[in-house]
Amino acid sequence: MAEETRITTFSLSAWLVRLACVLLLAGQAWTHLDVGDVPLRELLWNEEMMTGIVHKRLGMTWSEYVSSPEIDRGINRMIFGMGVFYAIAALFALILRPRTVAAVALCTATALLVFRAWLEYLDQARQWTVFWEHASQSATPLLVVLLCILERRGWGVQALLRLVLAVTFVAHGIFAWGLSPDHPLPWIGHLGFDVATPGRFVEMTLESLDLKSEEEALQILHWAGLADFAAAVLMFIPRLWIVGAAYMMAWGFVTALARLWTYFDAEVWSETLRTWGPEFLVRGVHWLLPLALLVLWRERVRQGEESGLLRE
Amino acid sequence: MQGVHSDESVPKGASDESVTGKSGVPWVDAGEDPNQRLAMKSSPRFLLLGLATAIALSVTTAEAATKYYRLMWKDDPATTMVVGWTQSGGILPAVHYGEEDFEEDWERYPMQAEPEHVTKHLDLDHCFVRLRGLKAATAYFFVVRDSEGVSERRWFRTAAMDDRPFALVGGGDSRNHREARQNANRIVARLRPLFVAFGGDYTASSTKQEWEEWFEDWQLTVGEDGLMVPIVATRGNHEKAHDVHRLFDTAIPEDYFALDFAGGNFRLYTLNSNIPRGGGQARWLEKDLEQHRGIRWKMAQYHHPFRPHTSGKAEQNLQYQAWAHLFYGHGLNLALECDSHTVKRTWPVRPYRGKGSDEGFIRDDRFGTVFIGEGCWGAPLRSKDDDKEWTRASGLFNQVDWIVVKPDAITIRTVQVDNAQEVGSVSDDDPFREPEGIALWTPDSGTEVVLTPQALPGSALAKVTALEVRQPEISIDPPVVLGRSKVEIRSEEIGGEIRYTVDGSAPGPRSNLYEEPFEVGGDVTVRGALFRNGELFSHVVHARAVAHPPLNPEPPRPEAALAEFRPVIAEGPRRESGRRFERRGVRLRGEDAGNGMLTKAGVQLEYALDPSMRRFVGVVGLPDSASRAGKGAVSVEVLVDGKLFYRTPVLSPWQIDRINVPLPATAKRLTVRVKAVGEASSHDELVWAHSGFTKS
Prior knowledge:
The structure holds two protein chains of two kinds. By secondary structure, chain A is mainly α. Chain A has 14 helices and no strands. Chain B is α+β, with helices and mostly antiparallel strands.
C-alpha cells in the first residue's frame, strides 16, 4: 500500500460513495421500520436449521414455536431493531463523527448486509446468484470506512470497488441472461445451471418499455445480461474499464429507476412509494459506485498521482 | 436416470413438444441428460439389465421401485388424468388400470400405459403417465408395475360431465411446519374432495430433501381405501421457475391454465403471480374469461394476494392493475390467495378507488369477488394485523378451505387442521356433510360463506341503480360535424363493457362493443351504456353530433392581415378595437387559427380602405375554448361604405364561416359588426382567422 495516498473527506468520489451508502442504509432502514418485508424469517423459521436451537434454547416444540404470535411479534421487533440500527448507521455515514464509532457502525452494517444477502439467498430457493448480486451493496459501508474514515484511495480500494461491482453485474447478468436448461441457446442447458430469468425482471422490462410480449422482454434482457458480463470483464482491463464503469453507471441507474417507474402508481402513491421507494434507494449503489470510481480516477489523474497499476 | 423406459413406451403420435420436451429427445424433458439415456440403449449393460428385468418381471409380489405418487390434470378432468410418481430404481414402469378393482393383480387390469413424459429434476426421476379417453365420474383403479415389482393398488375418480355437486380443498404454503402440513394432508384424506387447489410455496428452499419430504407427506392425502386426490398446482415464490412444471406436469411451463368442472359450469383459473401478471398471461386470461362468459362459476387461484392481511407483505398493485378489473368484469366468484401465512375471508368486493373504498376495493355483495386464503397449509403463522374495511373475518391458525360447489351455491368452510388425526372421514353417501370431529372456523360473521351465482336471470338496471354506479360519459369532438368527429365513451367503473349505437336506438348487450374512440360524420346520436355479464349496468347516456351547414369555398390567404390595421372607428361595449394574436394557441375547430384577431361580441369596427385592397377575406368562428364552455352564438356582418355586403349565418360553438367579399375599386370604408345572438354576451369572443385583404 506504499502507493496509497490520502484524500480529503470532501473529495467528490468519497462524497459519492458516502451518498450511495446513506441512500442504501436509509433504504434498508425504511424497509425494516415501515413495511418490514425482510426475509429474516427465512432463517428463524427454517425448520431444518432451527429445530435444534428452538428445542434447546427456548424449550418449545417446533410446532409451538412457529404457531406462536409472541414469537412472530418478537421477529417483528428484531426487524424493527435492525431498522433502527440501519438508520443510525446511515446517520454515521452522513456525519462520520466520531470516527471510531462511525467506523464500527459501518463495518457492522456491512456484516449485517452480508447476512441480509444470505437471507435473500435462502428466500430465493438457495440460488447463490442472489447472494453475489448483493456484493456491491454489502461492501458499500466498508468502502465508506476505507475512503472517508481511513481516507485511502489507492489501488486496493479501487480494486475492491471494481471487484464488487463486477460480481454484482455478473450475478445480475446471469439472471438477465438466464442460465437454465430452457434457455433459447441449447448449449446453455448443458452447463448444469438452473437459474431462470426472474419473472419480475421480465415484468419490469415488459411494463416499463410497454412491450407487447414476454419474448421481446426476454430478448432485451438477454442482451442486457451479455452487456453485464462484458462490463464486468472490462472492469479489469486497463483503460477499457472506463467503458465498463460508464455502462454500469447508466444501467445501474436505469434498473434502479425501473422499480419506481414500473410499480409506482399515482393513485396509491404512498403505498407504492413505501414498497418501491426503498428499492430505488438501496440500488443507488449500483450507479453511484461506478460514478465514484470514474470520479476517483479523474481525481487521481488530475493530481498526477498515477501509480504503476493505475496508469490507464 | 436409471433406465426407467425405452422408446417403445412412447405412444404413437406422441410427437408434440409437450411430449418431446425441448431437448428434442422423445419424452425426455429439458432437465434430463438425454445422452446418458441413449447410451444405455445400446450398451451391454443395458442388455444385461433387460435380462435381469425379464427375471424380475416374473416376480409379482415385490414392490415396484416407485414413490411419491401424485395425480394431476393437463386436460379435461372428466376424461383424462396424469398419474405421476418418482422412480427410484428398476425399469419399464407402466400403469395398469381399469374400472374394476383387482387389487395388486396387475395382469387382470384391462388397460395399461407407459410414462409419456419423464423429467429429471432435483436429481430425481419423475414419471408421468397421461391417461386419456376415461369415462366421466368414474372410479379407476391402478397399480404401477416395473422391473422390481408392483405398487400398491390406488384409485381415483374422474370429474363429472354434468353439474352434479363436488368438493375441492383449497390452500397453500406448506413450508417449514411439517407437522401442520401433515395434518392438512390428513384432512384432505378425510374430506375426499374431487381435487386440491394448491396455491404454492410447497417448500422453503426447493431443495431435493425438502421436496422428498413434501412428497412423502403428500401420500397422507391418500385415503385408507387408496383414493388419491389430484392436485392442481400453482407456483409460489419459493419455487424456482421450472419446479412446478417439472414436478407436477402442469399444462404449460409458465404454469397458468384453466380447467373445467361440473360439465363446464365451474372453471378454475390457475394463475402465476411470479411471472408478469400483465403481458401474455393477462391477455390469455381476458380472452379465456371472455370466451367463457356464460359459465356459472369461476374461481381463480394464485400465490400472491392483492392485499395481504399481514402488514409485513407488499401490496401487489401491478397484479391489481392486471387482474382485478378482469375478475370483476367477468364475474369471478371466488379467488384463493396464499403467501401471507394468515387466514382471511372477504366480503364480495369489486375494484374501486373512490369514496368508501379501502386499498382499491369496495364491498359489492351483488357482483363482487370473494377472496379467501392466505396460506396456512403448514407454514409458520404471521400476525393478521392488516384487516380492511371489506374483510369479513381473519384469523391465525393452520387451515385449509373446504369448498362445496353446487348448481345454486358455493359453500366455503374453513377447517382447522391441528386435530386431523381425530377427524373421521366423510361418507361417500353424503360427501359434503361435516365428518365427525372436524374443527371448523366459527368467526362472528358465520361459519360458512355462501356464494350464489352472479348473473341470475331477471337482474336488470332497476336492481343495480341502488349501487353507486358511475354513469358513462360520451363526448363528441367536435359536436358540429364538418367532415368527421371523434366519439369517445368513458366509464370510471372498473369492469364491464360499454356497448353503443349510432342510430339513436337503445344499446343492448349485442350492440357495438366500444373498444376505442371512433369517428362519425353528419347528424348522429350516439347512445351508450355499461353492460356487465350481458346485462345493463348503467343508465343509457347519449350525445348528439350535428352536421355543419355547407361552407363557402375556402378564400385565398390575405396579403395584409386585418390585425395589422388600426380601425378608424371602434364601437362596442368596451370600445375594443380587437386583440391581435400571433400563433398563441388560439384554435378554431381544433386547428391553429394562425395570425389573426379576437373581437368581443357587440363590437363594430370601421377600417379605411385604399384602392389596392381588392378583396376582404377571412375565416370566423367562436374559439374552441369558448365553444367548450357552451356559450351563445354570434353573427358577423361585413359592410362596405355602409352597405351590407355579407352576413354570416349564426355561428354556434364549433361552427365557422368563410368570408370572401370583393371590394369595389372606389370603396373607402369597411365595417365589420359582430352581433351577439341568443345567450351570447360581450364576454364572447370571435376569432378572425386568416383575415385581411388581398390585392388581387
